[in-house]
Design a protein that fits this description.
Oligomer: single chain
CATH class of the largest domain: Alpha Beta
CATH topology of the largest domain: Heat Shock Protein 90
Shape: elongated
Largest sheet: 7 strands, mixed
Helix content: 25-40%
Structural class: alpha+beta
Number of strands: 14
Strand content: 15-25%
Length: 494
C-alpha cells in the first residue's frame, strides 16, 4: 500500500553538483570498460561504423569516439547529457544496450574532467554540449556548457549525414599532468589502448562477425576475436539448451587440444591465457558482458581450461541477472542456476576428458591391474594419501637393463632419453587438479636410504681417486641432486 503524503510538509533535497559528479567518477570503470560503454550508445543509435582516435600530448592528450549513427537534436542531446535521464525500469527496445541512463556520463567522467558531445541528425547542423568538472566544482551548479575546445576534433562528422562524436579531454586518470616528453607515461598511455583494442575485439566480436558494426582505432580496422574458436579443427559444441522459458540460450563448447593448433592459431587464440579464460561468457543482445568466470558456481581448474559456455540473455532480464551500470558483472537468476550447474559439469567433464586421454592417467596408476600395457612411469598413493611417481621396473626396456651385469653408454643414453621423453607431465597436472593434497602432503623431510648412501659413497671414492681432497669431493657431490637434500651423507665419506 502506498502512503499518501499529500498533506505532509516537503522540501527539495537536490544533490550538490560537484559532489554528485565526483561520485560518478568512482563507479569502477577502467579505460576498456569506459570506451565499450560509449560504443554501446553508438550501436543503440544504429551506427555501422565507429572511429576511435587518440593522441598522446602529455597533459593535453585527448580521445574521440565518433559514429555514423542517427545523431541527436538539441533536446535529445540535453537529455543524453543529463545524469539519470532514463528510468532503468522502463521498457527498452530489444536492441538497446543501455539501461540506467548514466553510461555516457559515468564512463566519461571516470576517465576525464571534461567531455564534450558533438552531434548532428540527418538534415541538421552540428550542435554540441560540454561538461567541465573544474567548472562544475567552481560554480557548484549543474552547468551544461555550449562549448567545444577544438572544433577540429569533430571534423569527421562533416563527412557524415548524421552521427555523434564524444570528446574526452583533461584525462587526469590516464595521463595526469605528465609532460609530453615523458616517455614512460606515453608508453603506459599506448599500452592502455592496446588493451582497449583487445577488449573491444572480444566484447563486440559478434557484431563484427555479423558485419553489423566496423570499429577503427587510429585508422586501423579491428578484427573480431571469437573465444569459442568455432572455425578451428577439433573444437566441440557439446551441449545446447534454452532455459527460463526459452529466454536464456546456452551453448557449451570445448576448445581443441593445443596440439591440434598451428603456431599462428595458438598465438591468435591466446593459449597461454586459457586457464583464466575458462568459464561462462554472458552476452546481452550479442554484447559480451563478462567472460572467463564460473559465476561462483565452480572454481577454476587446470583440467577444465578448455571449457567455455556461452549464455545469451535479453535486456528484459537485466534485473533478474543483476546487470550493473558498467555492464561488466552479472549474477545468474534463480530460474537457471541449477541448469547452469548441470551444464557446467557437462562441459567441464568433456574438457577434462580431453586431457585425461592425452595424459594416459589410467595407464599411469599402478593400482589398476586390468590391462597389460606397461608405461615407463607409474604413480601410487601411500597410506597417507601422498602420491609418488617412479620408474616402472616391469617395463621391458627397464627390466632388461636391470637384469644385465653391465650396460653400455649407448644403452644408458637410450634409457635416459626414454625416461625424459615419457615424463607424464599432463597426468601429473591432471592428478594435481583432481587431488592437490596428494602432492602438497609430500614430506620434505626425506629419509636417507641405503641406495643413496651407496651411490654417494661410490662417487666420493671415484673423486678421491681422481686426486680431489675431501672438501672438494664433498662440494661436488652436494651440488648434485638428490644428494644436496641429505647433508647427513657427510658422515659416510671416509
Amino acid at each position: 500500500m502506498t502512503e499518501n503524503f499529500k498533506n505532509i510538509a516537503q522540501e527539495e533535497a537536490a544533490p550538490e553538483a560537484g559532489a554528485m559528479i565526483n561520485t560518478f567518477r568512482a563507479f569502477g570503470y577502467n579505460l576498456r570498460t569506459a570506451v565499450a560503454d560509449i560504443i554501446d550508445n553508438s550501436i543503440s543509435a544504429n551506427a555501422e561504423n565507429i572511429w576511435i582516435e587518440y593522441k598522446w600530448n602529455g597533459a593535453e592528450s585527448w580521445i574521440t569516439i565518433t559514429d555514423d549513427g542517427k545523431g541527436m537534436n538539441s533536446s535529445e542531446l540535453k537529455l543524453a547529457m543529463t545524469p539519470g535521464s532514463k528510468d532503468p525500469k522502463d521498457n527498452r527496445d530489444e536492441h538497446d544496450l543501455g539501461r540506467f541512463g548514466l553510461g555516457l556520463k559515468t564512463s566519461s567522467f571516470s576517465q576525464c574532467k571534461r567531455f564534450t558531445v558533438a552531434t548532428k541528425s540527418k538534415g541538421s547542423t552540428l550542435i554540441n554540449r560540454c561538461w567541465d568538472l573544474d567548472h562544475v566544482n567552481e560554480t557548484k551548479k549543474w552547468s551544461l556548457l555550449n562549448f567545444i575546445s577544438d572544433k577540429s576534433l569533430a571534423d569527421k562528422l562533416d563527412d557524415l549525414n548524421s552521427g555523434t562524436t564524444v570528446i574526452w579531454e583533461k584525462l587526469d586518470r590516464l595521463v595526469g599532468n605528465a609532460n609530453k616528453q615523458n616517455e614512460a607515461a606515453m608508453n603506459v598511455f599506448l599500452e592502455e589502448f592496446s588493451a582497449v583494442e583487445e577488449h573491444l575485439s572480444l566484447v563486440f566480436h559478434r557484431y563484427m562477425e555479423q558485419k553489423r558494426v566496423t570499429i577503427y582505432m587510429n585508422g586501423n580496422k579491428l578484427d573480431p576475436w571469437d573465444p569459442f574458436m568455432k572455425q578451428s579443427e577439433g573444437g566441440q559444441l557439446v551441449a545446447k539448451e534454452d532455459l527460463d522459458k526459452g529466454q536464456v540460450n546456452v551453448k557449451c563448447y570445448v576448445l581443441p587440444h593445443i596440439s591440434k593448433l598451428s603456431a599462428d592459431e595458438r598465438k591468435k587464440s591466446k593459449t597461454e591465457e586459457w586457464y583464466k579464460l575458462q568459464g561462462f561468457y554472458v552476452y546481452r543482445q550479442n554484447r559480451l558482458l563478462l567472460h572467463g568466470d564460473w559465476l561462483g558456481l565452480f572454481s577454476k581448474n587446470e583440467q577444465y581450461k578448455n571449457a567455455r559456455i556461452l549464455i545469451d540473455i535479453p535486456n528484459r532480464l537485466d534485473h533478474d541477472w543483476k546487470i550493473d551500470i558498467k555492464k561488466a558483472t552479472a549474477t545468474p537468476s534463480f530460474a537457471v542456476r541449477k541448469d547452469l550447474v548441470r551444464l557446467g559439469k557437462l562441459a567441464r567433464t568433456a574438457a577434462g576428458s580431453l586431457h585425461r586421454f592425452r595424459g594416459n592417467q589410467i595407464m599411469l596408476d599402478d593400482s589398476i591391474k586390468s590391462f597389460d600395457f606397461q608405461s615407463v612411469w607409474k604413480a601410487r598413493k601411500t597410506r597417507d594419501d601422498v602420491r609418488h611417481y617412479y620408474i616402472n621396473p616391469n617395463h621391458s626396456l627397464i627390466k632388461g637393463l636391470i637384469n644385465k651385469e653391465s650396460i653400455s653408454s649407448k644403452e644408458f643414453k637410450t634409457v635416459l632419453n626414454l625416461i625424459g621423453e615419457t615424463t607424464p607431465v599432463e597426468s601429473i597436472i591432471q592428478y594435481h587438479s583432481d587431488d592437490p593434497e596428494s602432492h602438497e602432503l609430500r614430506n620434505t623431510d626425506k629419509n636417507l636410504d641405503q641406495g643413496t648412501i651407496e651411490v654417494a659413497s661410490m662417487m666420493y671414492d671415484s673423486l678421491k681417486t681422481q686426486g680431489l681432497n675431501r672438501e672438494a669431493a664433498m662440494k661436488q657431490i652436494f651440488n648434485i641432486e638428490p644428494f644436496n637434500e641429505y647433508p647427513q651423507l657427510e658422515q659416510y665419506f671416509n
